[in-house]
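#struct-help
A.M.: can someone run this one for me? Single chain, 129 residues.
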Amino acid sequence: MIEPVFTEWRSGRTGPGVAARVHDLREIVNAILYVNRTGIPWEYLSHDFPPHKTVYDYYAKWEADGTTGRVHDLLRDKTRRAHGRVAEPSAAVVDAQSVKISANVAESSQGPRPADRAPRKAAASWPAA
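D.P.: on it. Structure tokens below:
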């Protein structure tokens, strides 16, 4: 399903003066997924995969030109259809951290953390001797 996207991407980068591709795109994708799932740094990528610099270069190019977005959209649409939904989502969830606070709320209750919103108490002092 996603192979045509990557094949089209690669075919647009072949021709005279372009070096022949050494690594299979499936192995590149598998390496990117491995880094994503395990959270390891790129340079710790197993030697079973293509070199980490090569894998990262593909990832960076695909991110920059929107290829990863296209793949994500294809997979999302297929998953939604498989669950009997329309391909495009009709709603979105907004994280409370990204919503601006209302101007009607007192500044004293607008701290970034609950501890910042609590009323301040005077510091206790030791009794004089």
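A.M.: thanks! The mean pLDDT is 80.
D.P.: also worth noting: The helical segments are 3-11, 25-38, 52-65, 67-82, 114-117.
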